[in-house]
Amino acid sequence: MAPIVSVVGGGLAGCEAAWQIARRGLAVVLYEMRPLVMTPAHKTGFLAELVCSNSLGGDLPDRAPGLLKRELALLGSLILACARETAVPAGSALAVDRERFAELVTQRIEAHPLISVVREEVREIPGGVVVVAAGPLASHALSRSIAELTGQGHLYFYDAIAPIVAAESIDMSKAFRAGRYAEGADYINCPMSRDEYDVFVEALVNAEVAPLHGFELEDPRFFEGCLPIEVMARRGHLVLAHGPLSPAGIVDPRTGARPFAVVQLRQDNVAGTLYNMVGFQTNLRYAEQERVFRLIPGLERAQFVRYGQMHRNTFICSPKLLWPTLEMKERPGLFFAGQITGTEGYMASTASGLVAGINAARRAMGLEPLVFPRESMIGALMHYIAHADPASFQPMKPNFGLLPPLETPVRREKRGHALSERAMQALMAFLKEDDTLPLAAAVE
């Protein structure tokens, strides 16, 4: 009888891991506690629910996020395939209708004959071959179990969610559609003059934030890659104008000039009725969000269908605990995946789920786990979380700085293309090492 592999957590990483294990002919039990036990950020019981942005990052093949998507496509990623099927306009990025996306992933997982979805809270890590992909919002009981197993205290940072507004409530007499540097018209732009920007920032830095709770008060650390907008504003009056409100590449068609600052909104569903505020992760009280964000030209009467909020994200000290195969050093057969390992972003989380799933399947089949080549973006990410300095370990997103230098230097404008092509060649050669895929699954 084929071994059964357990996957704890039905987020992006857990679903990807379960899919990759099942593709290799093994039975999987996928545990998800929602909707029986909810988290502070989730709203539904769907698998793979996106709780922050609906963007899965850049999609250009000569950029690091785009390369990661190319690699995931080559490896048969379920999450990427579902994202492509539920995509909404987002310029050179890949964004999805979050509800349709989660529904589709749930349908695919539940329909697979080798995957059994069990809706219950896992309070202790199971025995046997296991992938823990509980996510950064793991339940308190499971978090304690992980802490006891790893010997580590809580490592955590704060992550934040941006508000979503109804499209019909945006005043298009003040806002306009455009992409940066004339790349399509997928974004709604709310331009700001210097005076409007000054008033907005002053209100933002003085707005009241929601309180933190429990032990989180003892060491309130923010993740630099996803700072609340009010935290950024407090670092300097012009920080936002050079960051998420930068007008670079934007021209106001009414004036023919570049605004002093611009707030961008990205489509959040296929119907185009919802838009999220790009870069506006926040922990302001709900009433304060309405007061302050309605100072933005075009959003004076904005209808907020979801307010921004902040929550605690937990991650383990992977450099001390994991091999680059994502297997725990002290417990063979136990793999970790997702943001809890220190991968940043939806697609990096998916990539870790794919690696953990492939290697968990191999371990269950009596084979040694595989280390992905460092020349690939997937391999470089796994190498980082296994070899970073434990004292300063922070989650990492895909970037070309993780890859080994090119043997033959090329001009800067061609570097991304050269790194991408080398990565794909290395990954295709690597695929020959994994002979665990049945023929039908290999060509699906």
Q: Your description of this structure?
A:
- This protein has 2 domains: 4-155 and 315-442, FAD/NAD(P)-binding domain; 160-308, Beta Barrel (Elongation Factor Tu (Ef-tu), domain 3).
- 48% of the residues are buried.
- The two termini are 24 Å apart.
- It is an alpha/beta fold and 444 residues long.
- The chain is globular.
- β1, α1 and β2 (27-31) form a beta-alpha-beta unit.
- It has 13 helices and 16 strands.
Précis, in short:
By secondary structure, the protein is an alpha/beta fold. Helices cover 32% and strands 15% of the residues.
Key descriptive features of the protein:
444 residues; alpha/beta; FAD/NAD(P)-binding domain; Elongation Factor Tu (Ef-tu), domain 3; 2 domains; six-stranded antiparallel β-sheet; five-stranded parallel β-sheet; 13 helices; 16 strands; 32% helix; globular
Number of self-contained structural domains: 2
Q: How many helical stretches?
A: 13
Shape: globular
- Proportion in helices: 25-40%
Q: Please state the CA-atom Rg, rounded to the nearest Å.
A: 22 Å
Give the class from helix and strand content and strand pairing: alpha/beta
Name of the top-level CATH class of the largest domain: Alpha Beta
Q: How are strands sequenced across the largest beta sheet? A: 10-11-12-13-9-14
CATH topology of the largest domain: FAD/NAD(P)-binding domain
What's the overall average pLDDT, rounded? 89
